Amino acid sequence: MVTLPYLSPVDARQRQADGALMVDIRQTAEFLRERISQSQLYSLGDQANEPLGITLPVNKTVIFYCLSGARCERYAQQIATLVPGQHAFLLEGGLNAWKKAGLPVDVDRTQPLPVMRQVQIAAGGLTLISVVLGYTLHPAFFSVAGFIGAGLVFAGISGFCGMARLLMHMPWNKRSGLNG
Q1: Residue 43 near residue 49 (C-beta atoms within 8 A)
Q2: Residue 44, pLDDT score
Q3: Which regions span the lipid bilayer (predicted)?
Q4: Cα 31–168–41 angle (5° rounding)?
Q5: Contact status, residue 114 vs residue 33, Cβ threshold 8 Å
Q6: Under CATH, which architecture does the 6-107 domain have?
Q7: pLDDT digits (tens, 9 = 90+) for 81-123
Q8: Catalytic positions, please?
């Protein structure tokens, strides 16, 4: 198993100032909404998108990050093959730790929330409403909460989330140009 060295946010920021390239491996929508200043996108693990066309430099320090560091750990072996030699690092704690350290982040709130966050909001909201309606109007509304729960279990087991597919086609998600 390949392991890559970690850099703290402060050390990574210093290396960035010295010319290191910050590379975000998250999905396109996440990157467009919020990213480390002067970073580039090389999306890994996003089955809907091929890695976006940047050429990673040879003999230059490259620091990879995701939201919390978990995806970087998951894809460490793949990341290690992208940058030859001893020039690849992982940002410890990811974007969350970078922000907690008070380092510069580019935020574009006009971009939609990531689709999985939209799913969480929609599923949670519908479940909450159906439970309230079940207690106040008619017990049949509890079946809506059950249906949503079953859909979430199915999505977790199969990897297919119908609500996410539906939300990807909503007008606010078309704005960013993510879906063609």
Answers
A1: yes
A2: 81
A3: 119-138, 144-167
A4: 20
A5: yes
A6: 3-Layer(aba) Sandwich (3.40)
A7: 887 666 889 999 999 999 999 999 999 988 878 888 889 999 9
A8: 66
If one counts every other C-beta atom within 10 angstroms of the C-beta of residue 130, the result is 19
Residue type, 65: Y
Q: H/E element holding 21?
A: strand 21-24
Element (H, E) at 41: strand 40-41
Query: What is the rounded distance in angstroms from the CA atom of residue 83 to the CA atom of residue 78?
Result: 10
- Give the type of residue at 30: E
pLDDT on residue 180? 40
Question: What value does the mean pLDDT of the chain take?
Answer: 86
Q: What is the pTM of this model?
A: 0.70
Q: Where in the chain is the domain with CATH 3.40.250.10?
A: 6-107
- Cα dihedral value 69, 72, 76, 79, nearest 10: -140
By CB atoms closer than 10 A (0-12, 13-18, 19+), residue 155 is: middle
Task: Report the share of the chain in percent with pLDDT over 90.
Answer: 56
